[in-house]
Write a structure and sequence with these properties.
Elements lengths: L4 E9 L9 E6 L20 E5 L2 E5 L1 E4 H9 L11 E5 L7 H11 L4 E6 L5 H8 L4 E5 L5 H8 L4 H12 L4 E7 L7 H14 L6 E8 L29 H5 L5 E3 L1
Parallel strand pairs: 2-6, 6-7, 7-8, 8-9, 9-10, 10-11
Antiparallel strand pairs: 1-2, 1-5, 3-4
Helix pairs in contact: 1-2, 2-3
Length: 258
């Protein structure tokens, strides 16, 4: 039987903001969304591509079989001393390689703590196959207004919200992450929309562990030139991000600004 293959564009040791403890983050290639503020443009295309920089030219994207990636991850296990240490799968959107990812995670199950960072934009069978293998899901919640969501990300948010409710109702452990983009996701209307959605749809269980606010990184556009693309975010990057955790603390028990 032929083994599944996937494409990884980066593996970072000692990564920050990708979960608790000491973590290694595996970045899977491919994303169906086109967020105008994306800071990993090399993760958008599902195929390997060339990136140029002051340090030279390199190919972004390496093919792995499920067993080869599992073996590589096993090599990091001696670094992990505490239960919260572990592996985070990110992207791109890791659900675009759901069958490959689920295969790798099944091989790792019970050996290491596993987090999946996802936008939630995935077909339900793919979404369900991955989240059942994870110890916790880090779920991006960007813009509550459907039309604005499509304008800034290229897709409607209905499927994302449906998957979020499914995950909550099924009892999976998860944490919401909100990227704070000036004038886009940090508006009072969006803060209230997130608060009201959580209050109205996610408070019947005790599996939402908290919410993280991630302020916009001004260096987000730095990689685009190396891929032969232009970074045109369509918002004022110079404007200070509005940070309002108080609004969300009315509903979510733990809100952090990272």
């Amino acid at each position: 039987m032929e083994e599944r293959e996937g494409i990884v564009f980066d593996i970072k040791e000692l990564s920050l903001y990708d979960g608790p403890g000491l973590r290694c983050t595996v970045f899977l290639k491919g994303c169906p969304m086109r967020c105008v503020w994306c800071h990993n443009p090399e993760g958008i295309s599902p195929e390997p591509e060339i990136m140029r920089s002051a340090f030279g030219t390199r190919m972004v994207g390496a093919r792995y079989t499920a067993s080869a990636l599992t073996e590589k991850i096993f090599s990091y296990l001696p670094l992990f001393k505490r239960p919260e240490d572990g592996i985070t799968f990110s992207g791109g959107e890791p659900m675009t390689q759901a069958e490959f990812l689920a295969d790798v995670m099944r091989r790792l199950k019970g050996r290491v703590n596993m987090i999946v960072q996802t936008s939630g934009y995935a077909k339900r069978p793919h979404f369900a196959a991955v989240i059942r293998e994870a110890d916790i899901i880090y779920f991006d919640l960007k813009i509550m207004d459907g039309k604005l969501h499509k304008f800034y990300t290229g897709v409607d948010n209905a499927l994302i919200l449906e998957n979020l409710k499914y995950m909550n109702d099924a009892g999976y452990k998860y944490r919401i992450r909100v990227p704070l983009i000036p004038g886009v996701t940090d508006t009072p209307e969006n803060y209230r929309g997130i608060r009201d959605f959580v209050r109205g749809n996610l408070c019947d269980k005790n599996n939402l562990t908290g919410l993280d606010l991630l302020p916009y990184n001004p260096s987000a556009g730095g990689k685009y030139k190396g891929l032969g693309r232009e970074y045109s975010p369509g918002f004022d990057e110079s404007r200070a991000v509005r940070i309002d955790p108080g609004c969300l603390r009315e509903t979510v028990k733990e809100v952090k600004v990272l």
